[in-house]
Amino acid sequence: MRLAVGCALILTVLASLACHNMKAVNLDQAAGRNSVSLTLSDQSIVVVYGPKIYGSKLVGFVDGLYREIPTATVKEVHVREASGVRTAALVVAGVLGFAGFVYVLAGTGSSRAPDYCDAPEHVDEPICQTT
Fold first, then answer.
1. How many whole angstroms separate alpha carbon 121 and alpha carbon 105?
2. Angle ∠(68,71,76) on CA atoms, nearest 5
3. What are the DSSP E strand ranges found in 42-129?
């Protein structure tokens, strides 16, 4: 039982990553976001929090430090966005998985109540009496 719950938890965490995707935007659209991922001309990738554009520089916080990055060195700008289709698919898969889990659990028990008056095979008469 614990293994099943642990596996379900791990799958949920991994599947939650599917609710987002990275989208390429232009530099002007980057300024209105909470964070952006920049690919610079030297192929390094930098995540900038609170980006703003002042003239020919993109400014913001990188690893907790304020930085100014010349816009001429920025090759690509990516933002993380929610994916409605992936989120809906995850919700449907989660509901179906949970329903299947409940179905399996409900089907593993015995539906017949134990009969304590049944006689063992080697005894001619049962020990208890039914009324």
1. 32
2. 115
3. 45-54, 57-62, 65-70, 74-82
- What distance lies between CA 121 and its chain's CA centroid? 55
Tell me how long the chain is.
131
pLDDT digits (tens, 9 = 90+) for 32-62: 788 899 999 899 999 999 999 888 899 999 9
* pLDDT tens per residue across span 91-125: 777 778 877 777 777 766 555 555 555 555 655 65
Find out whether 50 and 61 touch, Cβ atoms under 8 Å: yes
Side chain identity at residue 39, one-letter code:
T
Q: Are strands 35-40 and 57-62 parallel, antiparallel or unpaired?
A: unpaired
Provide the 3-class DSSP secondary structure of residue 75: strand
Rounded to whole angstroms, how far apart are CA atoms 28 and 42?
21
What is d(CA 38, CA 117) in angstroms, rounded to the nearest whole number? 76
The helix or strand, by DSSP H or E, that contains position 20, with its residue range, turns out to be strand 20-25
Q: Please, what CATH class does the domain formed by 2-98 belong to?
A: alpha beta
